[in-house]
Amino acid sequence: MRIVTRVAALAITAALAGCASLKPAANDPAARLSAEAQTRLRAGDFSGAGQLYEKAGGISNVPDYFRLRAADAYLRAGDSTASRRLLGSVDPRRLDEDDHILYGLLNARIDLNAGRAREAMSKLDGLDYSQMTLAQKGHYHTLRASAYNQMGNMVESARERIAAGPLLSSPDAVQKNNEAIFDALSRVPDAVLNQQSEAATGVFEGWVALARLVRQTTPDQRAKAIADWNARYPNHPAHGAFADSLARRSDLAAAEPASTAAPAAETQTAVQITPLAEPGGSRSAPIVAVLLPLSGAYAAPAEAIRTGIDAAHDADIAQNKPALRFYDTQAGDVPGLYRKALAEGATQVIGPLLKDDVAALATSGELPTPVLALNENPGVSAAQLFQFGLTPEQEVEQVAASARLDNHRTALLIAPSSAYGQRVANHFSDYWRRTGGRIAAAKTYVAGSNDYSTVLEDVALLVGQGAAATPVPYENVADFIFLAADEHDGRVIKPYLQSLGVNLPVYAMSSLYSGQPDPGLGRELDGVVFCDIPWLLDETAGDALSERALEAKVAQTPPDYRKLIAMGIDAYRLAGRLDELRSGGRFEGATGILTAGEGNRIRRQLSCAQFEGNTPRLIGPAPSR
């Protein structure tokens, strides 16, 4: 582990040391709001606390103090957009030493949520570790562990988690940290783990020994081996309950040695194996090769998909379930990795993830073994290539079909001016007109700006509302709104329109829903209809692969990538059913009802829901188009 204190950080600290404290005084105008926000925090209502802190920042004598705490609360609630917006309004030069460290930690976490591990690490390296509180040090090591994880360096990720362990006070936090350490070392190839064992000392030595023990024993041998480990490491953090629990877990099995030497440093995850459940394995069992960018810029979404694949594999009770082999595509040459996987016995292939890699594989020649690619590239196809992606275009069409089923004909389109917003808006316009609908107007806004007055007042005039409104020709009268927005923007835009007298039904993209109802939020989205993957909407599901059952893994995944866990679940379960789909079969998956369309592209029939207050009520499957 390496702790870097840069000259720049020392200079900032020195400058701040000469500043007066920038904390609120007892008579600060925001004192009451601050006390209410702290009560919300203790109750676990992070979003509600963020809203109160944000209001406090608007009236306080030290606004940046409260904006920083609002950003922290929003980030705990999983709202990176709101957190980023508030941090952008904070002047770090006006923060005292403690808050300057908090400012750096929050910015690093936002980078990690977006998959920018190197940027996050740079921010963490710039902080003065010696000035951190114990809680901040624990947060610091946990963030560094996440960054190393995204970069594919599981050994250093485990080391950072080990450093964080003594700084954690909650038993639940300690347990989750132990699980993360073991999970990281479980993903290290045999050759690398054996190399670490030779030089390991202290607590790290015990963890490496435990990971190797589990990997090298069969289930019937494991209990005795773990008892011997407990005797050898009586003071280890994993001693006792955690180590004993490994003997009872059904998802651990003896490791089949990797057939190639592991690459070094950040690409050490190039080939990893999740073995068969049966003791000793079975050479005749199928092997699923998974091609993912497990290191580099796309490691975070790839890791979410892998979480889903691993969960589905663990839940598979088939007597001859397949082994999993993971191949890191970060270095390129996906066709070469495909051929390598086949040479090593792969009978099914999942991946790649990136569109360019899908194209490279599709144009590389004959594919003797079927491939379930995890993205869609409209420009390519191949006989043995199935393309499975969570594309917004499919969602747009099903939201539009829901509006049409409700007898709506003329849309008022509101979308952000971002590339994503315009992609969604363009597809909705094309699809809606192609199916006989009309577009009354299309308006754009700047996402996260918090000032939508000009755009929305213009919208009100377009539908004949507002003081300056004039009669609107019948053919331009909208009877519903199609809204592309995230949760933060949606909770501002919809009530603002209502305050202007625009009470049209709203049909929205699923980005409006964070994935979990938040009792601290209000009724701003009441009545909004949207379509999303069943895995997020069906709260009654209680099987081993439901979101509820995988809650711990979901919580460790950045909010922007949680749907990819469901995609990984479906990818594992679909890989052996591709011929069935090609023959007209359908599969009820976590991401929707799945069928194979033209060019072997997987089509998803989503589920639709309508907000009642702050909670989405499941309506049922989206209409068939």
UniProtKB/TrEMBL annotation:
What InterPro entries does its record include? Answer: LpoA, Peripla_BP_I, TPR-like_helical_dom_sf
Q: Which GO terms describe its biological process?
A: peptidoglycan biosynthetic process; regulation of cell shape
Quick check: keyword Membrane in the entry? yes
Q: Which UniProt keywords apply?
A: Cell outer membrane, Cell shape, Lipoprotein, Membrane, Palmitate, Peptidoglycan synthesis, Signal
Instruction: Provide the coiled-coil residue spans.
Output: none
The record's Gene Ontology cellular component field reads: periplasmic side of cell outer membrane
The record, for Pfam families, names: LppC
Fetch the Gene3D superfamilies from UniProt: 1.25.40.650, 3.40.50.2300, Tetratricopeptide repeat domain
Keyword Lipoprotein, does the record have it? yes
Recorded GO molecular functions are:
enzyme regulator activity
Signal sequence span is 1-25
Listed name of the protein? LppC family lipoprotein
